[in-house]
Amino acid sequence: MSISERVSIAPRIKPFAAVLATLRLMRDPQDTRQVFRLTEALRGRSMKVMFDRFAATPVGANVLAEQRSLLAALTDRDYLASLHEGTLGQRYLAFMAEENLSAQGLVEIAMENTNAMKSADDGLKIYAGRMRDMHDLYHVLAGYGRDELGEVCVLAFSYPQQKIRSFWVISTLGMLHIWRTLRAAGFNASGVIAAVREARRHGRAAAWLPGEDIEAMLRMDLEALRARYNIKKPVIYEEVIARLRRESGTTTGPLKEATQNKFS
C-alpha cells in the first residue's frame, strides 16, 4: 500500500466552526489560533489532494522516506548564521530576529488548535508540518512584511501554492478589513485590493515551491532563487506600504500603529 493510500480519510468541512473562527479573527486579526481553527474547519479533502501531488514529486518522496523535518533546519540558528550573506537561510534568520519570531512558536499554536492531524498518517503529518513551517519562508521569498497587509498578501500568495481554503477566506476578508480601516482613519486606501490581487497572481505564476528541496534552497542566494522560481517583486504592495508610512510618519510596524498615530 502506498503512502498516499494510507492517509486517513479526509474530515468533513465544518461550516459553523469556520464561521465562528472567522468572526473571532475579524475581531482580532493577530489571533493566529483562529487561523489554524479555520484551516481545520475548512480542510475537507483539499490537503489529501495536495499531499498526493507532493508525494508524487522526487523531493516529496525523499522527504517522506527520510521523515525529514523542515523545522529542524529552520531552528538550527548556528547553521543558518553560518550561511553566506544574501542566502535564503541568512535572510530568513534576520527576518525572524527582526520580528522576534521563532519557527517553534507556530508549532505550539498549531498543536493547541488543531485536532485532525493528531490521528493522521505519519506521511500527512510530515507534509502538514512542512507547509506550516514554510509560512515565514514565504514572507522572505515573496518579499512581504509582517504588517497587516503583508500578512494578508502572503496568504494570498500561498493559496495557489498550498490550496488551503482558509488562506483564501482570510486574505479576502482581511483585504476588505484593511481597506475599510484605512478609509475610516482618513488614509488613502487605494492599492490595497490591487496588492492582494497581485499577490495571488504571483503565487499562481511562481513555481510550485512545496515540491522543491527547501532545505537546499536555504543555502542559495535569495535573488537567484526568485529568478529561478519566477517569484516576482511585490511592486504594488511595496508602493502602498511606502505611501502609508510616509503619510503616517511611521517607518516600521504594522498598519495598526499608523492608524493610531493619525489621531495621536
Structural class computed from helices and strand pairing: mainly alpha
Number of strands: 0
Low-confidence stretches: 1-10, 106-110
Beta fraction: under 5%
Q: With helices defined by DSSP (H or I, 4 residues minimum), what is the helix count?
A: 17
How far is the N terminus from the C terminus? 64 Å
Cα Rg: 18 Å
Largest sheet: none
The averaged pLDDT comes out at 82
Helix content: 55-70%
Number of domains: 1
Which descriptor suits the 3D outline? globular
H/E element sequence: HHHHHHHHHHHHHHHHH
SSE blueprint:
Elements: H1 15-27, H2 32-42, H3 46-55, H4 58-66, H5 70-74, H6 77-82, H7 88-98, H8 103-113, H9 122-133, H10 135-142, H11 148-162, H12 165-184, H13 192-205, H14 214-217, H15 222-228, H16 235-248, H17 255-261
Helix pairs in contact: 1-2, 2-8, 2-12, 7-10, 10-11, 11-12, 11-13, 13-16, 16-17
Task: Provide structural commentary.
The structure is a single chain. The protein is mainly alpha-helical and 264 residues long. It has one domain. The chain has 17 helices and no strands. The protein has helices spanning 15-27, 32-42, 46-55, 58-66, 70-74, 77-82, 88-98, 103-113, 122-133, 135-142, 148-162, 165-184, 192-205, 214-217, 222-228, 235-248, 255-261. It starts with 14 loop residues before the first helix and ends with a helix.
